[in-house]
Amino acid sequence: KNQVEQSPQSLIILEGKNCTLQCNYTVSPFSNLRWYKQDTGRGPVSLTIMTFSENTKSNGRYTATLDADTKQSSLHITASQLSDSASYICVVSEYFGNEKLTFGTGTRLTIIP
Amino acid sequence: DVKVTQSSRYLVKRTGEKVFLECVQDMDHENMFWYRQDPGLGLRLIYFSYDVKMKEKGDIPEGYSVSREKKERFSLILESASTNQTSMYLCASSEVRGETEAFFGQGTRLTVV
To answer: What gap in Å lies between CA B78 and CA B49, rounded to an integer?
Structure first.
């Protein structure tokens, strides 16, 4: 069964610090990997999307990496801000004629002043 | 600005009621999806649609049905609501294929009492 596992489950850091969130997956055949940010009570919003051939992609203070050989991805947040407090969800897509998405359960990040 | 709009942010329904959750997208996307999100389980796919009047079961379709009479609108129907259907429901849309982003609505928090 295709799975996406994220760690840690939750994380608390001080404002201004950096952090890294992890995602391991077993989805095959792999199409792409996405990171979403979900504020409490809202729908997820896309941060990055990476295909097999990409190993890093940035979106402002967010940098995602992908190692397709080990089936691992990370999301690095630089100089965290209070507004970064949210759940971060790793989503892996398999392509079978149409895309099928498998969602991780997310990492709950809390930034404290 | 792309938009996926769900008709309600919060709903409270009684057990046994028939419940309609509506979703409209303004991006002319072919694909539309309904997910439910529960703590510790991530997003799980209920139903999806790749075209008007077309529907496919996702991972957890039991107790639900859908309707897609127009390209921009995808409805989720709970034929007889039960307490175990209390959840956050998220609608999403995307283009047909490729490394395209899935856009999510703001979510509907449904409580069945």
So the answer is: 17
Cβ-defined contact of B104 to A89 (cutoff 8 Å): no
B9, two tokens = 């942010």
Q: Region B10-36: what's the mean pLDDT?
A: 95
Q: Which among A4, A51, A103 has CB closest to B99?
A: A51
pLDDT in tens, A50-86: 988 889 999 999 999 999 999 999 999 999 999 999 9
What are the two backbone dihedrals, phi and then psi, of residue A83, each rounded to the nearest 5 degrees?
-70, -10
Question: Residue B107: left if φ>0, alpha if ψ -120 to 50, beta else—which one?
Answer: left
Integer CA distances (angstroms), B108 to A8, B31, B97, in order: 27, 19, 27
Answer whether A89 sits within 8 Å of B94, measured CB to CB.
no
> Contact B66/B77 with Cβ under 8 angstroms?
yes
Do residues A9 and A89 make contact, with C-beta atoms less than 8 angstroms apart?
Answer: no
Task: Tell me whether residue A108 is exposed, middle or buried, using C-beta atoms within 10 angstroms of its C-beta: 0 to 12, 13 to 18, 19 or more.
Answer: middle
